[in-house]
Here is the input.
Amino acid sequence: MKHHVRIRMARVRGSLAIAGVLALAACATTGTGTATGTPTRTTTAQGDVAPRDQIWPVVTREHVDLWLHGFAMLTSDTARVPFFQRGYRQRMMDQKRKANAYTSLDANQEKLSARFTANPALANAQFVAMYFPSLQDIVTATDYVIRAQGDPRASSDPNIQNAIAIMAANFPTAADRDWLRLFVQSLQDESNRFYHSYWTAEQQTRSGARAELGSQWRNTYYPKFRRFLSNTQQGTGELILSLPLDGEGRTINDGKRANAIAVSFPESTAATMEAIYVFAHEAVNKVAETAITDNVTPAEQRSGVAGRISAAATVRGGALLIQRVAPELADGYMRYYLRSIGTTPPTGNVTTAFTAAFPLPDAIRDAIARQIEAVLAGI
Here is the structure.
């Protein structure tokens, strides 16, 4: 799934009234929603309670990790900037063998993976879990969309209509919804037999990195990013630490009502800033897409030029944002994204290697820089 596909999916999300879906989730037993569309909080092992006085709290969400874990186990990650940690699938298979865990996800792997060949767009559904506060709410929404045969008009309840619409946008055909049913059933078994225990253990192992990041984000880096976030309709949201993710994070945007950015979960306190790097990469994504749209011709759009440069534009845009608001992180950011694509950073100045690895037309680079300046100036 290329970065430009992720942007298209984010626009779909914005049109489906996320607050209504969260209101639906409030009817379940796992948490409560709010009228503003703030993601539901839970005190179970599925995640954290986000402090009410934090506008962009650092949180974890077990069901988001489980959902992404399922995709990582079923798909081949061929993106230049990886979606998932390199070697993730093999590491998880090794972990499962050690735990003597064979689950429905393993048993159904061949059938579930085959569907991506028939419908490559199914990979876009990686974002679905970020709409919902728990796995049980995803199970409920899956039941709704299957019984409604993908038609939101099958229900008179607007909250259920919204849940069906989100699921139907990602699983539009009967075959896709049959895949969804089997996938969700397989994830439930995966969680019961393996993933919940693994996830819980990893939270303990990475607790020091989590605490250090929380302190750095709250006291230093959120204040540096705050103006940019507020002026790009990302004033409130959640920074989700996700175990499967790498340099290509996951973002959902609904203007000022609900935003969430999922980033890689640092393995140690020494790697704490990696989460900030991916956050910057994701936060600048709208600006980068606008710069591309404004600087490519309709013919280039049709030929796929915009899509091919989208990933580089976001990586370069993140660097420009970092250089503007937190320049002390610029060197680390560039080294991180070079390592992310499998390139060993030079020992000296890294800028030349970074710009060569992520080539971008000057017009688009300059447009991103101008827009960042305009955003920070409040124009």
